[in-house]
Amino acid sequence: MKVKEQLLTLKPYIPGKTTDEVKREYNLDKIVKLASNENPYGCSPNVLQSITTKIPSFAIYPDGAATELREKVAEYLGVDGDQLIFSSGLDELIQYLIRALLSPETNTVMAKETFPQYRHHAIIENAELREVPLKDGRHDLEEMANQIDDRTKIVWICNPNNPTGTYVNQLELEGFLSKVPNHVLVVLDEAYFEYATNDDYPNTIPLLNKYENLLIMRTFSKAFGLAGFRIGYGIGAPSLIKQLEVARLPFNTSALAQTAAIAALDDKDFVENTVAVNAKELVKYYQFFDEHQISYYPSQGNFVFINISGLSSNEIFQRLLEKGWIVRAFPNGVRITIGKEEENEELMKIIAEIASVKLS
């Protein structure tokens, strides 16, 4: 049995080590995982109450159209129901966007240092990749626009960007969209939308009225704290959504996931409190990094991207791991999820030790 040749160049997604694995390997009693940008405060109490009182029949397939959830999200966003498509997390939505649009005769444009699933699935479809390096950790929209040609099908903008936490502002985004030809789909990955607090972070829903070649992706995995349920969604022109529905699996979101998402939308206070505490903790990190001369990017997500002069990202990762702290290493830095206050304070002390030992 032989798979597509391009699959041989790829590696399956390797999740970070589990807390139990690290405990055993390093003989540690306490492990803190800050690697996957999960919500450290869990999810709304509404969710547990809802999934234990509105238990669906497990012998029956879920509602493939996600009718109740569709109505809830449409009301929440102020859009029409036929502008929405639901998926098992954003990973699946990315997969069937690429399956629907890319082929060996086409190309796709993205940042070089961004969410890796755009690249991964484009390679599977044997499409040409046009990866544009970030500029100071931010999307280089001018060069991305230059890379677009008649064969371009999708441009990806992760906003805020994962892993750097940087963002494209309203003026920059509108300027970019005005340059993109109608045959190119611009996908705005707003997985961390709720965490963005800067005044000039784009208000993208109204842009859908002007640009039919725009698709916005959002998820319940981050600020809503439902990563374990795997549910996300896209927002776009009804004509586009109708075509994409053909690529969607019939029962791709579970009944429990739909129930949990509906309940989560009813608790705005939970999300608002989560975002407020995250912003407060980010400021503390910035002050600490400035004090200890640690390089970082100001973030609009629930994570921060750092580098310590004189240490490789793998060295930083390993030293933290040995002390029971799981973060995520990238070629040019380390991404740390913003945890609870006590976790952040303890981690700062450990990072200070690592930095001081290297500098001494």
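That was protein one. Protein two is written in the same sequence-then-structure order:
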Amino acid sequence: MAVCIDAASFRNTGETTCHHLPCTINANGKANVADFFETAIRIENEGLTSSFRGRPLHGQEVTLPEGFIGVVLKEKGEAVIEEEVRQLHVQHRFLKFTAWNLDKIPNADDRLNKALRWISIARALHRPVDLESSQQSVSGK
């Protein structure tokens, strides 16, 4: 199944607040996050704390790597058959989000943090090498 993102829709979007929760919610549609979740967020010594359906959450604000912008996509209609191209458009964009963990304080070993660190590692690995300057540094000149 192919996916097509309407790039023109990016121009008409504003920034939004996003949360990455460690759960699956079997629902699509709007949720009143501002009133029912964000009002319960507290700042404590270990970082951010809250709860979702009675379960304790620990969070941290995560900034996307330089040069990256996060987007919230919405499907224009639904694909009727599997081979049909799915049409998505950009609803919102974000430069940072809050990542939440169940029962543990977020740290550098979280999968999400490791994935975001990989972006800078991949940039360094795939950056073109200037042979002349690298030869000079090896020879000590």
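The chain is about 20% helix and 35% strand. Keep this in mind for the problem set.
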